[in-house]
Write a structure and sequence with these properties.
Elements: E1 5-8, H1 17-23, H2 27-43, E2 52-56, E3 59-66, E4 69-78, E5 82-91, H3 98-114, H4 117-127
Parallel strand pairs: 1-5
Antiparallel strand pairs: 2-3, 3-4, 4-5
């Protein structure tokens, strides 16, 4: 069975929204978030609802309930093997807000401009 490679998006300035968010949570919530990310890494596009869902234009959401909040981590697939987690947010409305989807698209565009398939492999190997 194929294992996907998960990468947390980093801005040009080195900010990592997903890592910063996870680091700010309690140990129990971190374990829950990291467990679901591991499940995503194992299942990739076959991770079903209620854990994940397709939104629009290649943007997906990882769906996690922590401390009564609906946490969403948006992501996209690229270069056959990779899942790029763009950013987290607490969902407070029925639908994922369009500005959050647009932010994920902007991060995807930035990521793909900076990383080709060879460079992404180097980054992944540095982080494992």
């Amino acid at each position: 069975m194929k294992n996907w490679k998960v990468i947390y998006y980093e801005t040009v300035e080195g900010e990592c929204p997903v890592d910063d968010f996870i680091s700010s949570k309690s140990i129990n919530n971190r374990v829950k978030i990291l467990g679901l990310i591991s499940f995503l890494e194992e299942k990739g596009p076959n991770l079903p609802r209620p854990y994940a869902d397709f939104l629009v234009d290649g943007i997906h959401e990882l769906r996690i309930k922590i401390s009564g909040d609906q946490l969403r981590i948006l992501y996209f697939f690229c270069y056959k093997d990779y899942i790029i987690l763009t950013h987290p947010f607490i969902k407070k409305t029925d639908k994922v807000p369009i500005p959050q989807i647009e932010k994920a698209k902007k991060f995807r565009e930035d990521f793909l401009e900076r990383f080709d398939e060879k460079k992404i492999l180097e980054v992944y190997n540095e982080n494992i």
